[in-house]
Protein backbone atom coordinates (compact mmCIF):
# COMPACT_ATOMS: atom_id res chain seq x y z
CA UNK A 1 0.00 0.00 0.00
CA UNK A 2 1.32 3.44 -0.87
CA UNK A 3 0.28 7.10 -0.77
CA UNK A 4 0.69 9.21 -3.92
CA UNK A 5 0.22 12.90 -4.70
CA UNK A 6 -1.98 12.78 -7.81
CA UNK A 7 -0.69 16.17 -8.94
CA UNK A 8 2.55 14.44 -9.90
CA UNK A 9 1.09 11.43 -11.71
CA UNK A 10 2.03 11.29 -15.35
CA UNK A 11 0.47 9.39 -18.21
CA UNK A 12 2.59 6.46 -17.07
CA UNK A 13 1.36 5.77 -13.51
CA UNK A 14 4.48 3.70 -12.86
CA UNK A 15 6.54 6.85 -13.37
CA UNK A 16 5.43 8.48 -10.12
CA UNK A 17 7.05 7.75 -6.78
CA UNK A 18 4.93 7.27 -3.66
CA UNK A 19 5.12 9.90 -0.93
CA UNK A 20 4.74 7.17 1.68
CA UNK A 21 4.86 3.36 1.72
CA UNK A 22 3.02 1.22 4.24
CA UNK A 23 5.54 -1.65 4.34
CA UNK A 24 3.66 -3.94 6.76
CA UNK A 25 0.38 -3.95 4.79
CA UNK A 26 -0.47 -7.39 3.36
CA UNK A 27 -3.10 -7.90 0.66
CA UNK A 28 -2.15 -10.20 -2.17
CA UNK A 29 -5.34 -10.51 -4.21
CA UNK A 30 -8.43 -8.92 -2.65
CA UNK A 31 -10.15 -5.85 -4.12
CA UNK A 32 -13.17 -5.70 -1.80
CA UNK A 33 -11.37 -5.34 1.50
CA UNK A 34 -11.93 -2.90 4.38
CA UNK A 35 -9.93 0.31 4.37
CA UNK A 36 -10.44 3.80 5.80
CA UNK A 37 -8.52 6.95 6.73
CA UNK A 38 -8.97 9.20 9.76
CA UNK A 39 -7.43 12.64 9.12
CA UNK A 40 -8.28 13.56 12.74
CA UNK A 41 -6.14 10.70 14.06
CA UNK A 42 -3.60 10.67 11.17
CA UNK A 43 -4.26 6.94 10.92
CA UNK A 44 -5.10 4.45 8.17
CA UNK A 45 -7.00 1.29 9.12
CA UNK A 46 -6.53 -1.50 6.59
CA UNK A 47 -7.86 -5.04 6.57
CA UNK A 48 -5.24 -7.64 5.72
CA UNK A 49 -5.68 -10.69 3.51
CA UNK A 50 -5.28 -12.99 6.55
CA UNK A 51 -8.44 -11.72 8.31
CA UNK A 52 -6.74 -9.17 10.57
CA UNK A 53 -6.75 -5.36 10.74
CA UNK A 54 -3.68 -3.15 11.04
CA UNK A 55 -3.34 0.54 11.84
CA UNK A 56 -0.77 2.71 10.07
CA UNK A 57 0.55 6.22 10.65
CA UNK A 58 -0.14 8.78 7.93
CA UNK A 59 3.04 10.56 9.04
CA UNK A 60 5.56 7.72 8.77
CA UNK A 61 3.76 4.76 7.16
CA UNK A 62 4.75 2.61 10.14
CA UNK A 63 2.39 0.10 11.66
CA UNK A 64 0.91 1.38 14.91
CA UNK A 65 0.62 -1.21 17.67
CA UNK A 66 -2.81 -1.50 19.24
CA UNK A 67 -3.31 -4.80 21.11
CA UNK A 68 -7.12 -4.74 20.92
CA UNK A 69 -7.20 -4.07 17.17
CA UNK A 70 -4.32 -6.53 16.64
CA UNK A 71 -6.45 -9.23 18.34
CA UNK A 72 -9.09 -8.98 15.57
CA UNK A 73 -8.98 -12.16 13.48
CA UNK A 74 -11.63 -13.77 11.29
CA UNK A 75 -11.50 -16.55 8.68
CA UNK A 76 -11.60 -14.27 5.63
CA UNK A 77 -10.61 -10.67 4.85
CA UNK A 78 -12.70 -8.04 6.61
CA UNK A 79 -14.78 -6.11 4.09
CA UNK A 80 -16.39 -3.48 6.31
CA UNK A 81 -14.52 -1.02 8.51
CA UNK A 82 -14.74 2.73 8.96
CA UNK A 83 -13.85 5.60 11.25
CA UNK A 84 -16.80 7.54 12.63
CA UNK A 85 -17.15 10.22 15.29
CA UNK A 86 -20.14 9.60 17.55
CA UNK A 87 -22.14 12.34 19.30
CA UNK A 88 -20.41 13.65 22.44
CA UNK A 89 -17.10 11.95 21.52
CA UNK A 90 -14.03 14.06 20.77
CA UNK A 91 -12.27 11.69 18.38
CA UNK A 92 -13.47 9.17 15.81
CA UNK A 93 -13.71 5.48 16.69
CA UNK A 94 -13.00 2.56 14.36
CA UNK A 95 -15.95 0.29 13.61
CA UNK A 96 -15.10 -3.19 12.27
CA UNK A 97 -17.63 -5.68 10.91
CA UNK A 98 -16.75 -9.22 12.01
CA UNK A 99 -19.35 -11.53 10.51
CA UNK A 100 -22.65 -10.66 12.25
CA UNK A 101 -20.88 -8.55 14.92
CA UNK A 102 -19.78 -4.92 14.91
CA UNK A 103 -16.82 -3.97 17.10
CA UNK A 104 -15.99 -0.42 18.14
CA UNK A 105 -12.43 0.68 18.96
CA UNK A 106 -11.82 4.10 20.54
CA UNK A 107 -8.39 5.75 20.45
CA UNK A 108 -6.15 8.19 22.24
CA UNK A 109 -2.43 8.58 22.90
CA UNK A 110 -1.14 7.09 26.15
CA UNK A 111 2.04 9.18 26.21
CA UNK A 112 2.76 12.63 24.78
CA UNK A 113 5.43 11.16 22.46
CA UNK A 114 3.15 8.45 21.04
CA UNK A 115 2.79 8.59 17.28
CA UNK A 116 -0.71 8.72 15.90
Question: How does this structure look, described?
Answer:
The protein has 116 residues and is mainly beta. The longest helix has 4 residues, at 67-70. The chain has a domain at 34-111. The strands form three sheets. A four-stranded antiparallel beta sheet has the order 3-4-5-6, with no helix packed on it. Strands 7-8-9 form a three-stranded antiparallel beta sheet, with no helix packed on it. It has one helix and nine strands; from the N terminus they run ββββββαβββ. The two termini are 18 Å apart. The chain has one helix at residues 67-70; strands at residues 2-3, 20-21, 35-38, 43-47, 53-57, 63-64, 81-84, 93-98, 101-106. It is globular and about 45 Å long.
Helix count from the secondary structure assignment: 1
Rounded to the nearest angstrom, the radius of gyration is 15 Å
Strand order of the largest sheet: 3-4-5-6
Tell me the number of strands.
Answer: 9
- Spatial separation of the terminal alpha carbons: 18 Å
State mean pLDDT (0 to 100 scale): 81
Task: Summarize the amount of helix as a percent range.
Answer: under 10%
Low-confidence stretches: none
Keywords: Repeat, WD repeat
InterPro entries: CUL4-DDB1_E3_ligase_receptor, WD40/YVTN_repeat-like_dom_sf, WD40_repeat_dom_sf
Q: Any chance you could write out the topology, listing elements then pairs?
A:
Layout: E1 2-3, E2 20-21, E3 35-38, E4 43-47, E5 53-57, E6 63-64, H1 67-70, E7 81-84, E8 93-98, E9 101-106
Antiparallel strand pairs: 1-2, 3-4, 4-5, 5-6, 7-8, 8-9
Amino acid sequence: MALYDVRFLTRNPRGARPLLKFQDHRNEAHFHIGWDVSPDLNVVAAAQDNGTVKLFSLRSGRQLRCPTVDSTHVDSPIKALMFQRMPRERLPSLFVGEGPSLRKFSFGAMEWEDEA
